[in-house]
Each structure stands twice: as structure tokens, then as C-alpha cells.
Design a protein that fits this description.
- The protein is mainly α.
- The chain has a domain of 109 residues.
- It is built from five helices and four strands; from the N terminus they run H-H-E-E-H-H-E-E-H.
- The strands form two sheets. A two-stranded antiparallel sheet has the order 1-2.
- Helix 3 packs across helix 4.
- It is extended and about 80 Å long.
- The N and C termini lie far apart (67 Å).
Length: 171
């Protein structure tokens, strides 16, 4: 009798484990598209081809003086430049280190090349923001919804005073 009970308990434990594992969604396979809202483009700037179409790409690393002078590059600026991320041949897209063209809606793939731990945490819902069902459809915010891709570090903010303890009033 005891052996039957322990075998049944073991079988139930195995079934429960299988059910839990199958209920979890596996992480996105490389190249799997994640649902995101449109990227936060600056008004009048996108599509980039509106200005860049017909313009020969200038791949020389330099300080921009004619346009985009409001962009301050503070993102590994000693080693990075515009065309390390922006596609010189199709300005309406980005590119991975491999040269693969990536739309702005999949910019998380570009960010994830250097920021692998943050990408993993973003996919798991630990870093950034996602909305949707616990075990179903989800929508994620892109990195650029919270971080300026040219200057991703948040500006420091002054700490606020601690909240005051509530006081009891007796009548």
C-alpha cells in the first residue's frame, strides 16, 4: 500500500512539473519578432530617407555640423559613431554588427548585441516595461521608449525626503 501511494505521489509530481514547464513560454528565438509600439521618433525627423534619399553616405567619423547638431553622443562615444548602428545604405533602418538590416521596431536586437544581460532581463519582464497577460499575449516597450539611444544613462535626480508618518487624531 505504501509503495502504491509513493508511486502515485511521484507520478503526480512528474505530471505537475511537466504541466508547469509546458505552460511557460520559451524565450524568443534569435530573430523572433516581439510586439512593440511604434518607436518614439522625433517629429519631422523620420523617415530619414526624406532628407537622405539620393545623398551619398559619408562614412567618415566626424562631428555633425549641418544637421543633427542637437544629438549628443554619450554612448561609448570613444568607440562608437552614428553608422555603427544606423544603416548608411538605407537610412530608414539600423544594422547589426553582422551587417543584417534591422527595422527600428526591432532595435532591441541591436541593443541586445552589447547589452546581453539587459536584453535577457527585458525579455523576461524584469528590465523595462511590458504589458499583457501573465501567460499569453504581451507587448514590450522598446529600449528607446525609456532610454535615449544616443545618451542612454538616466540623468541623476535629487532624492526626495522620506514620507511623513501618519498621525492619529482622536476625537
Amino acid at each position: 500500500m505504501r509503495r502504491t501511494l509513493s508511486a502515485a505521489a511521484g507520478a503526480m509530481l512528474v505530471l505537475a512539473s511537466v504541466a508547469m514547464v509546458s505552460a511557460q513560454r520559451p524565450p524568443a528565438a534569435p530573430g523572433e519578432r516581439v510586439e512593440v509600439p511604434p518607436p518614439p521618433f522625433s517629429d519631422g525627423i523620420y523617415p530619414c530617407s526624406g532628407c537622405h534619399e539620393g545623398m551619398a553616405p559619408n562614412r567618415t567619423r566626424r562631428t555633425l555640423v549641418d544637421m543633427h547638431t542637437d544629438i549628443e553622443l554619450r554612448h561609448d562615444e570613444e568607440h562608437r559613431w552614428c553608422l555603427d548602428c544606423h544603416n548608411a545604405d538605407d537610412r530608414d533602418s539600423l544594422h547589426l554588427a553582422s551587417g543584417e538590416k534591422v527595422p527600428f521596431e526591432e532595435s532591441y536586437r541591436l541593443c541586445g548585441q552589447c547589452h546581453g544581460e539587459k536584453y535577457r532581463d527585458w525579455r523576461a519582464g524584469v528590465h523595462g516595461r511590458r504589458v499583457g497577460q501573465w501567460n499569453g499575449h504581451k507587448q514590450y516597450l522598446l529600449c528607446a521608449h525609456c532610454h535615449n539611444p544616443h545618451k542612454p544613462r538616466f540623468a541623476p535626480i535629487a532624492p526626495k525626503p522620506a514620507p511623513k508618518r501618519p498621525t492619529r487624531t482622536h476625537k
